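[step 3/7] inverse_fold.run input=structure_tokens len=683
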């Protein structure tokens, strides 16, 4: 896994209507006449939202820009099912037609057009043989399976001519390993019994009934990440790290391999993390991102271009957040498209290769994700959402961003008016400006005061943005319906505000960033909106860390919810799958500075806690092992502090099963109601 993912941010794994309308300013919407599956038109229950919300995940615009393929995911909770089913839908870019392309009990995802636009490929495990590549004529007909690989396809990419497809796949178990497993002799030697991802290629023959003849291109002790085809299809460039696992991202390099097999040649190694290589349209240059030999967990990536003829390279201009995610070259080769966190938004930008300043393409309220461009770069598609618009497909000209909304996949979903929401700004104790989404109580009346929930994001380089209030990812509309303000601060250390801001809590977890958050609550109290006697704190991952550590430093919170939280920085370092994470943030190994690690750990300050605390933790979490939750739970029990701990079987760092998501949100609401709910005060 590449570092250019928000590693500590909680993420959950989770169509149809025609016509188009321009994106306007975000306003609450009503749907009093709509009915839902449960026949309940009043209450935003966790069960209702999880079971009825449909999420649009990504777009793939056709080469000619006329059609957009996109994915839609929805929960399955009937009987013994508790998962998400994803299928591919189609919509014309003028909004005149829309339909569901794939169906069945197995998900279909990762759609890609063939370069000539004739076929659409996707991945699916519908034959229970791992994720394989399938193909379909988007005009209609049955899909057919293209690959029968021994393992499960991770990512794939069409060649520029459309004659071949390359894909990456983690090495499947050998026959000997399978035999050892059957005989119960399958011991695991840590850091030695490894399975690496490598590149494979096959010729595309749509009319051929037999499965593709797959040829392996790379092998050895390195783990492949992103890859790209050269314009002439003769070479594949890829980034790779020495071992699988998130811990090894600081040693990522870039190499090439002939597409018809041959020797691997390393071409870029700047001493840190060099990633996401992309060939220029003429094949003379290579774009990539790099930390320039200074890998740090808070993250900073710059855009470079390498001259493939002489091997020289140069850094392009600065981006807004110094964390660019490369997308593709512009067809004329004069700029490179990339996406980046942009305060409370996610936007598309273009960086010129001549050294000029970047150009912002997407604009306006909300967030733009799942972006794609057509072959000549004139038209773009994306998934857009804001506080009051659910995720849907938009399309626009690239040169003049005027987005048209093409879909309404959650038509009939909204029960009542959505809560008021806005982005507010305040100054922290040292003058640093802090920005935050603020969700109002659904029944808000000016002059009354209401309880507030401080909702802390993960990362700590995560960021809370202008996301739809009634999605199944966070109980924002539910808390609003219960009469709470929800404050979601982007404190120092958050992404989206530049490198200096992102590094501002290095060696300072729980101190400056907590003061940022407290200042936000105080700002609302001073405005006469929040009852200072009814404050709760909650969060997941780093947010769980803060929910545990904050209550060792202040008694202002009447309730706390610790989700998958770090509570002991020393034991976390020795048991997580990223043992270098905390030493990097705290600029020392724990044995080099015990006092620093103890000072910032809830468990070493636990005697100061008086706040009732609910602890939620996935049982299969290797990022923040469940022992972190148990350490806090057992300490609070011995201190006679009111506490409860709930664990979720089979779940990794995020909760993936929708029935567990319902349970988790119900418990969060019940816990806050128990300690914060009472008649509103003030007139």
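[step 3/7] decode complete -> sequence:
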């Amino acid at each position: 896994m590449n570092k250019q993912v928000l590693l500590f941010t909680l993420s959950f794994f989770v169509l149809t209507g025609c016509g188009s309308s321009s994106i306007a300013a975000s306003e609450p919407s009503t749907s009093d006449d709509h009915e839902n599956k449960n026949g309940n038109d009043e209450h935003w229950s966790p069960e209702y939202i999880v079971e009825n919300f449909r999420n649009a995940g990504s777009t793939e615009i056709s080469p000619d820009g006329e059609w957009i393929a996109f994915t839609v995911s929805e929960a399955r909770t009937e009987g013994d099912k508790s998962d998400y089913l994803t299928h591919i839908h189609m919509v014309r870019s003028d909004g005149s037609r829309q339909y569901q392309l794939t169906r069945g009990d197995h998900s279909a995802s990762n759609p890609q057009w063939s370069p000539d636009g004739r076929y659409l490929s996707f991945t699916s495990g519908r034959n229970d043989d791992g994720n394989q590549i399938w193909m379909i004529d988007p005009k209609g007909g049955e899909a057919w399976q293209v690959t029968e690989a021994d393992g499960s396809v991770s990512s794939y990419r069409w060649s520029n001519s459309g004659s071949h497809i390359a894909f990456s796949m983690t090495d499947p178990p050998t026959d000997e390993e399978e035999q050892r497993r059957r005989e119960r002799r399958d011991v695991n030697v840590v850091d030695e019994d490894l399975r690496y991802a490598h590149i494979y290629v096959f010729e595309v023959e749509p009319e051929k009934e037999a499965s593709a003849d797959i040829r392996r291109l790379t092998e050895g002790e390195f783990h492949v990440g992103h890859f790209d085809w050269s314009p002439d299809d003769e070479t594949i460039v890829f980034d790779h790290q020495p071992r699988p696992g998130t811990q090894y991202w600081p040693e990522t390099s870039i190499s090439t391999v002939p597409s018809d097999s041959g020797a691997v040649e390393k071409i870029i190694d700047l001493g840190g993390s060099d990633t996401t290589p992309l060939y220029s349209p003429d094949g003379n240059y290579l774009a990539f991102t790099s930390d320039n030999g200074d890998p740090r967990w808070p993250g900073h990536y710059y855009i470079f271009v390498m001259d493939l003829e002489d091997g020289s390279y140069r850094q392009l201009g600065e981006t807004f957040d110094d964390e660019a995610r490369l997308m593709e070259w512009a067809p004329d080769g004069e700029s490179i498209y990339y996406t980046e966190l942009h305060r409370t938004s996610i936007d598309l930008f273009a960086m010129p290769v001549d050294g000029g300043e970047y150009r912002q393409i997407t604009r306006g309220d909300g967030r733009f994700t799942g972006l794609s461009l057509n072959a000549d770069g004139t038209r773009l598609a994306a998934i857009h959402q804001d506080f009051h618009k659910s995720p849907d497909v938009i399309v626009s000209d690239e040169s003049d961003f005027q987005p048209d909304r093409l879909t309404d996949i959650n038509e009939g979903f909204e029960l009542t008016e959505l809560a008021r929401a806005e982005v507010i700004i305040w100054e922290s104790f040292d003058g640093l400006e802090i920005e935050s989404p603020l969700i109002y109580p659904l029944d808000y009346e000016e002059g009354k005061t209401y309880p507030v929930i401080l909702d802390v994001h993960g990362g700590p380089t995560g960021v809370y943005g202008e996301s739809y209030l009634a999605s199944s990812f966070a109980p924002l509309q539910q808390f609003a319906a219960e009469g709470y303000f929800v404050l979601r601060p982007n404190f120092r250390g958050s992404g989206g505000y530049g490198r200096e801001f992102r590094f501002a809590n290095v060696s300072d977890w729980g101190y400056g960033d907590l003061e940022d958050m407290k200042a936000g609550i105080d700002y609302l109290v001073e405005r006469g909106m929040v009852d200072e006697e009814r404050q709760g704190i909650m969060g997941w991952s780093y947010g769980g860390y803060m929910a545990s550590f904050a209550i060792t430093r202040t008694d202002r919170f009447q309730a706390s919810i610790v989700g998958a939280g770090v509570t002991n920085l020393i034991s976390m370092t020795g048991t997580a799958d990223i043992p270098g994470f905390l030493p990097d943030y705290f600029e020392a190994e724990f044995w080099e500075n015990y006092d620093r690690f103890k000072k910032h750990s809830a468990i070493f300050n636990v005697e100061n806690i008086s706040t009732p605390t609910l602890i939620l933790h996935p049982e299969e979490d290797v990022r923040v092992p469940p022992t972190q939750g148990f350490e806090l739970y057992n300490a609070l029990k011995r201190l006679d502090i009111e506490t409860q701990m709930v664990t979720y079987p089979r779940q990794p760092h995020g909760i993936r099963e929708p029935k567990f998501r319902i349970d988790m949100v119900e418990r969060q609401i019940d816990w806050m109601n128990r300690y914060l709910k009472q008649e509103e005060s003030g007139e």
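[step 4/7] annotate
The chain has two domains: 55-405, 421-676.
Confidence is low (pLDDT under 50) at residues 4-41.
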